[in-house]
Amino acid sequence: xxxVVDVDVMLARRKMSVGTLADLxxxxxxxxxxxxNGRAKAVRFSTLAALCEVLDCQPGDLLxxxxxxxxxxxxxxxxxxxx
Length: 83
Known about the structure:
There is one protein chain. This protein is mostly helical. The protein is 47% helix and 7% strand. The chain has a domain at 3-58: lambda repressor-like DNA-binding domains (434 Repressor (Amino-terminal Domain)), CATH 1.10.260.40. It has helices at 7-14, 18-25, 29-36, 45-55, 59-62; strands at 3-5, 63-65. A two-stranded antiparallel ribbon has the order 1-2. It starts with a strand and ends in an 18-residue tail after the last strand.
């Protein structure tokens, strides 16, 4: 997936454990692990905001885009309107 989650980087910078972050954000450690390991299909803005507040960072510090090596991946192809 071209979206990379860098929660572990911010945890290391803040010298914080996954359990502590989960408690402060209000999510389970298991759900935080799913997000941290890049297996999440979605993240709520309220969760992203809470992560940013607790870690004192911006959303871009936690999420970044990297192109797939094989091309567009799951990206749909837009139809070109005829004129």
